[in-house]
């Protein structure tokens, strides 16, 4: 009983990771994967989760042992490492939050049947509301609220997936032909799916920052306890990705239905595909679950990008004085909201292309950031007894090789 109590007490960064990951990669990409390509897409989903595991685990391991963030570790490896990560973060600043808030705004419009209000204005309302929650509630509110959200979401998806499986797979239309995977369109989709599955690799530093923040108000757990928290969150993300894929496969595969790139239309399609297969009574249940999924993702990603941006600026320009203050955090949260609102307003008609670009960049840089994280945990910063074992090191190199070869294969298709 004591072990369970300690485990629950230490839950925090791992669940925040799960809440952040269960968003675009799950609700959008996993559902679309099952709907367009069928059961075969379980393979890249599982492979992405397995091969990327060490990249994220090292974020927890490095911070737990050294009391430093991964970003500080990059600086210790050389300023070039930090500048590279700063560039990736800058790119993410203009894409990730805009993409997440766009999908969430679409779900909100669908859920409450809003008419006469543009997507960008709904997104603006979400930016204001979430910014206030983050500034006033701080990390503690984020952690407590998301423990409930993730728990409810997990239960809701278990029920939904069970009902979908019980009702059986939709009968394919006559003369249905499976969508090819290994062509330019299919490979691009695979890159998007694996680039954001379970989430972007640059988010490995987000977990380390959340860990540091949690320890300010709670006794620091052991490395074993920190890894338990992370492993629970990581397992949940992988399992829920499979649930979403199964739902897409059982309800849409073989029907020749194309899921829209428009956020509002996509939101309506997702909710309708659930209710058509399960029953109209499930509409509000499914709509709220989908919206809660994306809302929690927006909140965690907005918080994380704000903290990462401040950490990077602190390390790049130490003579300017620390930016790790409540005022600096509040300003950064608001500034990110303004920047991404402008992106949504300016590129609303081309958000699909913007998301595709963001996922492609995330996929291409994943092996590089994975290698940087390995350099951190194998450095003199970490005592030999706390470094990853040989099998985890091998898995890291296999992940780097797998993602690199896939990127090369994509470029080969594009060129030839």
UniProtKB/TrEMBL annotation:
The keyword Calcium does not apply. One of its GO terms (molecular function) is metal ion transmembrane transporter activity. GO terms for cellular component: membrane. Pfam families: Nramp. Keywords: Membrane, Transmembrane, Transmembrane helix. It is found in: Membrane. It is a multi-pass membrane protein. It comes from the Bacteria. InterPro entries: NRAMP_fam. This is NRAMP family protein. The lineage of its organism: Bacteria, Pseudomonadati, Bacteroidota, Flavobacteriia, Flavobacteriales.
């Amino acid at each position: 009983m004591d072990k369970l109590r300690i485990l629950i007490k230490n839950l925090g960064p791992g669940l925040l990771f799960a809440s952040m990951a269960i968003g675009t990669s799950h609700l959008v990409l996993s559902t679309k994967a099952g709907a367009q390509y069928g059961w075969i897409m379980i393979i890249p989903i599982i492979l992405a989760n397995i091969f990327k595991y060490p990249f994220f685990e090292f974020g927890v391991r490095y911070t737990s042992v050294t009391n430093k963030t991964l970003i500080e570790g990059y600086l210790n490896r050389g300023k070039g490492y930090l500048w590279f990560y700063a560039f990736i973060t800058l790119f993410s600043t203009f894409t990730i939050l805009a993409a997440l808030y766009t999908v969430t705004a679409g779900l909100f419009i669908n859920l409450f049947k809003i008419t006469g209000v543009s997507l960008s204005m709904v997104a603006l309302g979400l930016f204001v509301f979430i910014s206030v929650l983050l500034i006033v509630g701080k990390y503690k509110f984020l952690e407590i609220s998301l423990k409930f959200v993730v728990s409810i979401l997990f239960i809701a998806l278990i029920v939904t997936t069970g009902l979908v499986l019980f009702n059986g797979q939709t009968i394919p239309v006559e003369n249905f032909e499976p969508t090819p995977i290994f062509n330019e369109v299919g490979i691009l989709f695979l890159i998007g799916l694996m680039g954001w599955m379970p989430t972007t690799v640059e988010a490995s530093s987000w977990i380390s920052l959340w860990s540091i923040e949690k320890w300010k108000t709670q006794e620091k757990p052991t490395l074993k306890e920190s890894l338990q928290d992370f492993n629970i969150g990581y397992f949940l993300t992988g399992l829920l990705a499979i649930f979403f894929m199964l739902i897409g496969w059982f309800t849409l595969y073989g029907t020749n239905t194309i899921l829209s790139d428009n956020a509002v239309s996509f939101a309506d399609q997702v909710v309708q595909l659930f209710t058509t297969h399960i029953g109209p009574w499930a509409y509000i249940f499914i709509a709220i679950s989908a919206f809660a999924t994306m809302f929690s993702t927006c909140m965690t990603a907005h918080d994380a990008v704000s903290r990462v941006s401040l950490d990077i600026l602190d390390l790049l320009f130490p003579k300017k004085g620390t930016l790790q203050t409540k005022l600096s955090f509040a300003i950064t949260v608001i500034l990110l909201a303004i920047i991404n609102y402008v992106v949504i307003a300016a590129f609303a008609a081309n958000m699909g292309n913007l998301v595709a670009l963001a996922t492609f960049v995330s996929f291409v840089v994943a092996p590089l950031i994975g290698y940087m994280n390995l350099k951190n945990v194998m450095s003199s910063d970490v005592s030999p007894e706390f470094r990853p074992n040989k099998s985890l090191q091998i898995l890291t190199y296999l992940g780097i090789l797998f993602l690199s070869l896939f990127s090369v294969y994509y470029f080969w298709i594009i060129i030839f």
